[in-house]
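quick one, three chains, predict together pls
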Amino acid sequence: MLGRTAVSYLRKQTQVHILKRGFADQVAQGSEKLKLSFATPTSALRKDASVDMVVFPAATGMMGVLPQHVPTVAQLKPGVVTVIEEGKEDKYFVSSGFAFVTQDRTDILAVEAVRLEDLDKEAVQRGLSECESAINSASDEVSQAIAQIGVEVHSAMKSALES
Amino acid sequence: MAAMQRSFMNVVSKSRNLVGSNPRTPSWSLNRNRTADQALLLATENNTSSGVDFQVRFASLKAVRSRMRSVASISKITKAMKMVAAAKLRGVQARQESSKPFTAGLKSFLKSTFSEIEGKETSGNHLIVAVTSDRGLCGGVNSNVVREIRKLLHEDKQNQYAILLCGDKGRDGLQRLYRNLFVVTIKDVFRAPVNFAQTCVVAEEIFKQKFDSVAIFYNHFKNAISQVVTRKVIPGLDIILKHAETFDSYEFESDMDSAQTLTDLYEFQFAVQLFDALLENATSEQAARMSAMDNATRNASEMYQKLTLTYNRQRQSVITGELIEIISGAEAL
Amino acid sequence: MVQQWRAAGLTYLRYANICADFVRKALKEPKRTEALSRTTFEMTKSEWSEGKVAKRESLTQEAERNNVSSSNK
């Protein structure tokens, strides 16, 4: 049914959302692939690729999508998108965006997506501290909101690099 | 002979009046002196026989030569512009290809939701977003957009319209008749490659306006020779919220209530669709400029060849005339 | 109940671009410079009223980025 890596991956992610599937009994054994497009405004990380599974950071928690998923629109929050192909995992950190899931395909539209190895650990820590102190010293609502966003994004980057 | 002299002088004087007479066409424009060229060609053709004034013949030789020089330099400019446009087209086309999965990712979702709602409400306040370039010499792309907008405004007398313009050419084309409908004009949109952050700023300017629906007019890039004016209609946020049940076939994963989620989604899809329109228009602009400059270069070289033939014929008739005069002068002695 | 940034007057687009910019700034060089320069812009906006230009304003990424970083000081 699911590949071995996918199953062990799910076991690791204790916050994985309940997988919602329709027509579960009709899923073929291991031959069913998910059609995935995962793109930013400037680059296509996956274009109509056939993958086993994709996991992305929905606002309600990490969400795993297998073929034949119910139609879903997920608002993304800063976090890690994992594409599972041929048993291998490919990870990207996304800033925000939306994911559109239908029976036939999944489209993940992120405003920015970077590889984890391209993130600078010290810069993330520095940014997190700066934003945390900015919340206290903020002079108006807008600056405070921006600082809060900064804390959210930097915390997510920090935990992505640590896991 | 007097009659021939009179008709020749008519043609030459007409051509003199046309040279540099029209202040609006720029000095490097090929259109400016087309009638003057034809007058010159006619005049010199009529002179190949006999007895027309010696000085007038020399004057037309000089005129033809200077005309040839200006046509040659124009063709150099248009050829350079064509190569620049071709290089820019390659760049922007590559960027558009990379962005396709992003802009296309929404399409099936929008088809089953927004497009359904769009058909239901057609009256009210409409905002027209005109996407044009800032610079000209790009064929029909800007005039096509302006024409479609004019057609819409002329035909629809019931609804209220306001116009938001990206690009100076749209402003120039519409301001004579419709300047009272202008709300915002934005310049230098296409100066640097279009990016998503920039598109979001333009989208926010649009959101500041009140409207029931938005119609974006831009040029869809089919290929290097074909760019088609397209109208993209996006209903306003209030209309979308009013028909929120259209989204019932989708589950929403969000930590906010449905109105909030729909609002966030609305703003996002708007920016993605606007990004698509701006990219397509940028590509269309370069393609149209490349093909317009290509045509101009071809026209200029045709004109140069015609002028060369005329020049040679005229030069030979001058020499023949001189010989005849020398010989008849010698005989008189 | 709305998001804090929505209550402060920001749109989702502004939120999304602020998030994206934070991620870009945390990149290692040279990807950081490339990503930041890829997302700059400089436009001029004119607001019209009754057929005439009422106000002119420049819209630049530099200004946006300065707003964000000044709030971090």
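DSSP finds three helices and ten strands in chain A.
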